[in-house]
Amino acid sequence: MIRKGKAHWTGTGRDGTGDLTTQSGVLDHSPYGFKTRFEDAPGTNPEELIAAAHAGCFTMALAFQLQRAGFTPTSLDTEAAVSLDSVDGGFKISKSALTLTASVPGLDKAKFDELAKEAELNCPVSKLLNAEITLTATLV
């Protein structure tokens, strides 16, 4: 399976602008640039997209872990907070902090923690990231 995304850019790094388009069309010439990345201008940025991808990947991996263990979640809500840090004159995505709140009938905390950790370690986006990954998981 191959998924594609495209970027278009004009101008310099600081003053230029670009847009992102995905194969599915979910992003269709979505604006991005210096101001969407380092300030709060409308549009998206690579770190936000990585955060959404990591949250989505982890949550789906956990849903499969739960299914294999015989549990059906009522809800799984995950936020990923991706850190972009200045390192050696450049930038590095240094961390992705996952925060999960889950409602899973009949599941005890120990099994929940085990399955959540397994999903954190084995979702494809976690495996891709060369960054520290943390998980705070709450079973309600």
Automatic annotation (TrEMBL):
<dbReference type="InterPro" id="IPR015946">
    <property type="entry name" value="KH_dom-like_a/b"/>
</dbReference>
<dbReference type="Pfam" id="PF02566">
    <property type="entry name" value="OsmC"/>
</dbReference>
<protein>
    <submittedName>
        <fullName>Osmotically inducible protein OsmC</fullName>
    </submittedName>
</protein>
<dbReference type="InterPro" id="IPR052707">
    <property type="entry name" value="OsmC_Ohr_Peroxiredoxin"/>
</dbReference>
<feature type="region of interest" description="Disordered">
    <location>
        <begin position="1"/>
        <end position="24"/>
    </location>
</feature>
<dbReference type="InterPro" id="IPR003718">
    <property type="entry name" value="OsmC/Ohr_fam"/>
</dbReference>
<dbReference type="InterPro" id="IPR019904">
    <property type="entry name" value="Peroxiredoxin_OsmC"/>
</dbReference>
<dbReference type="InterPro" id="IPR036102">
    <property type="entry name" value="OsmC/Ohrsf"/>
</dbReference>
